[in-house]
Specification:
- 2 copies of one chain form a homodimer.
- By secondary structure, the first copy, chain A, is of the alpha/beta class.
- Chain A has 2 domains: about 5-50, Spermidine Synthase, Chain: A, domain 2 (Roll), CATH 2.30.140.10; about 60-275, Vaccinia Virus protein VP39 (Rossmann fold), CATH 3.40.50.
- Chain A is built from 9 helices and 12 strands.
- In chain A, the strands form 2 sheets. A 7-stranded mixed beta sheet of chain A has the order 8-7-6-9-10-12-11, sandwiched between helices. In chain A, strands 1-2-3-4-5 form a 5-stranded antiparallel beta sheet.
- The interface of A and B includes residues 193 and 219 of A.
Chain lengths: ~280, ~280
């Protein structure tokens, strides 16, 4: 039997991969959580059938969502991750020696438990002593945090209308994020494909811009996300991220990120630049 | 009826898109040529069922395969394009005012004829007075050209074993390309996805390196090519491409390329850099 999984980005395009085995499939309070094994992408984590991360290319996403903001800040000590229950973002954050505390705010404990069991190569960083795991609503946590975090990373599912992550992409939430950040604070959120979802990219960029004086879009190649071109939107209180305030050699290995890639990621193709400069 | 086209990059992964209409399908002497219309990618040109270009994202490929070498050369006047019968690469080349002659060497006249009829927005540049079209074997033409071209662009199908383009990816051919180029000459060839075909990228880079003292890999986001991360290998006789010898404002509009993107495209993720530095 040839078993294939197809993820449709919309009604007109989809990415398919052959499945070796469904490793687990569980309905949690919030969503259906699936881990499957494939030849092309290794193990894949799905939430409600939507691909979240794969062991083949997760390094690109997790390195770029974490090292870019961390190396844009002069001295990041305290970080919050909203979502990110698979642990990959935390794994990258704790590589930085300056980090004293990482608070992971994940609403669904089952995502963490299943990731620890089935994706230990991704979830391993969650065991670091500096990591505090809160099973809680990310919006509630950020709303009651004032002047606390140097970096806030929003590592959520997509902004689907009516979905659990939708309110994480609103200007009201970004205002709360701004207030939860310390003086030189920086936030990053994953923000869809400029090729497939240009309006979403544009909308989120404008929403972040309302709260943050410095707003930037940057890109990474992630083959398992729709179109392979993925964007991140960064809001900064004072530091220009492309200036790389933290130039110290961090002394840890990476598979994607380099200081050179950090700067290059902010160079946008014309059609992407037009999305965020048009009013 | 829902009609879907699926292109499998290998036995384990494929990209699918919904088809509105098959516009034409013809068996030429060399291959099956198909043009179909889709909602997601607009019109798609297929050769032997393999996606070559789409009206939605062709600008990324054609701008990056042409403007990068042209702006790396101090004064490009004469260019050869091997393959490229759809005309998109030529369309970009003739935007440069310094260009006096472009020779398109396409083995299959039907690719040109069908592109002109069904993809005029891509093929339009072929009507420029500086363009000479040769229906001929690209290897033969390059072998008998000595010290003729400032730029040679290899815009071929993939290096499939036994396929018509296979010999365009050999070190013997790159030696001929070197000899066909003038003193500061530069060649570029499209070279597969580092995510899906790392060995091919590595192999071609090494083959180009045997003939050219300066060899570079650069990248572009092309959602309809496998993985969305596409590589180009550039060989240069004397000029470092990242230095951008030709800094003049060309004064024409682009959708992807900028001088900033030119430089950023040479910044490689660690796993890609490792492919071309490991021996």
């Amino acid at each position: 039997m040839e078993l294939w999984f197809t993820e449709k980005a919309n009604d007109y395009v989809g990415l398919s991969c052959r499945v070796r085995e469904i490793l687990t499939r569980k309905q949690s309070i919030y969503q259906e959580i699936t881990v499957m094994d494939t030849k092309q992408f290794g193990k894949i984590l799905l939430l409600d059938g939507v691909l979240q991360t794969t062991t083949k290319d997760e390094f690109a996403y997790h390195e770029m969502i974490s090292h870019v903001p961390l190396n844009s800040h002069p001295n990041p000590r305290k970080v919050a991750v909203i979502g990110g229950g698979d642990g990959g973002t935390v794994r990258e954050i704790v590589k930085h020696k300056s980090i004293e505390k990482v608070v992971l705010v994940e609403i669904d404990a089952d995502v963490i438990n299943i990731s620890k069991q089935y994706l230990p190569e991704i979830a391993g960083g969650l065991d670091d002593q500096r990591v505090e795991i809160l099973i809680a609503d990310g919006i509630d946590h950020i709303q009651k945090s004032k002047d606390v975090y140097d970096i806030i990373i929003i590592d959520s599912t997509d902004p689907v209308s009516g979905g659990p992550a939708f309110d994480l992409f609103t200007s009201d939430f970004y205002t709360c994020v701004y207030e939860a950040l310390t003086k030189d604070g920086i936030m990053v959120t994953q923000t869809e494909s400029p090729y497939y979802e240009p309006e979403a990219v544009q909308h989120i960029y404008q929403a972040v811009s309302k709260s943050f004086p410095i707003t930037r879009l940057y890109l990474a190649y992630i083959p398992t996300y729709p179109s392979g071109m993925w964007s991140f939107t960064l809001g900064s209180k004072s530091k220009k991220p492309e200036a790389m305030a933290n130039k110290h050699n961090q002394g840890f290995p990476t598979k994607y990120y380099t200081p050179d890639i950090h700067k290059a990621a902010f160079s946008l193709p014309v059609f992407v630049q037009n999305l965020i400069t048009e009013k």
